[in-house]
Amino acid sequence: MGFAALFLRDLRLVWRRPGDVAVVLAFFVVATVLFPLGIGPESNLLARIAAGVLWAAALFASMLSLDRLFAADYEDGALDLLLLAPWPLELAALAKCAAHWGVTGLPLAVLAPLIGAAFGLDDRSLLVLALTLLVGTPALSLIGGLAAALTLGARRSGALLALLVLPLCVPTLIFGASAIEATATGEGFWVHLTILGALALVSLATLPWAIAAALRQAGE
Amino acid sequence: MTTALLEVSGLACRRGGRRVFDGLSFTVAGGELLALTGRNGSGKTTLLRALALLVPPVAGMIRWQGQDVRADRENWCTRLAWLGHLDGLKGDLTAAENIAIAQRLRGQPADLDLIDSALSAFDLSALKDRAVRTLSAGQRRRVALARIAASRASLWLLDEPLNALDGPAQKALHEVLARHRAAGGLAIAATHAPLDGARTFELGI
After folding, report:
1. Which CATH architecture has domain B4-202?
2. Which of A148, A219, B38, B204 is the 20 to 30 A CA-CA neighbour of A61?
3. Per-residue pLDDT, B205
4. For B155, how many CA atoms within 13 A lie in the half-sphere containing its CB?
């Protein structure tokens, strides 16, 4: 009940201000398109680096909207209402991260294959790219949620957030990119995808508690 | 003879290593309005936050109907309505949406009749479909107060409820508080201005 209310509230807020999401997606497109322009039309090279470039760009893009994830609620006092809600704060943290994933991770997973095609990835790799982003980005939203909660009220929270998030996202980045590489070389991608899924599940099982603890600390 | 619903005994809080208050004890009975007064920095907001369990006290006990409220935090939260010094409203949502969402976040279905009556009590009916960010500070405060009035909570914790309110809005708040108390509700307000029928509790520095 409260979970759904918070999830839908955040989606509605994004719907009222679609610019915030549009900026994230536009950043992803622009950042990835720079690579073919800079490297030149060497399709072999482009296809080889595509996986890493797209995953790293997706990571940066999903980070762009993170610093507002809890900061907006912190600044207008709505965080107190979440802290005082008669249901677990862990669920509230999960609802916020789920909404963040719904408006960044999910559109990125849909958009990435279109960009991947410009890098000369084959059809199978494009499918795997979308799949890995779909499975891997929930972990990015949760890790980012923790960093956003920890940096609440800090000065230069944006830069601090990047320093916290990027190292923690390395495993997700490695297995996301290697799944696509494995597909390109004809190996199976399932191992990489299941590890990616495992990372997302571990994040799901642990991080809502950590985020809730950080939010309580910020509320004091 | 009314019995005390809320009992606070020996409450002590510290912020940043500094003692804010020690050994605070008071009781509030059903239908009572307690006005917390005191100088700036005397700990009015900290006391309200401690009562809402947002700040852990270093000592003391808060009891509701004889039960330690920390033993069942969720049950305690369903009894509370909170108005901080920030309004807790989302600027991109309308006044009515803000109140409906606050009700759902409290785990209750949105009650449109209750929202309408709370909005009209603060003379906001004409503004209910306006995005809150287009409202003035005083109008926003009235929306936040309407959120409290529509909360169905028995204990209202209000931090400077009269802030930014004009004369008619202050009168509306007094009327809403009187109705809440007539229904057996309690309210604790940190305030510098006098509140109708309030028992004053002064915090020293």
Report:
1. 3-Layer(aba) Sandwich (3.40)
2. A219
3. 58
4. 24
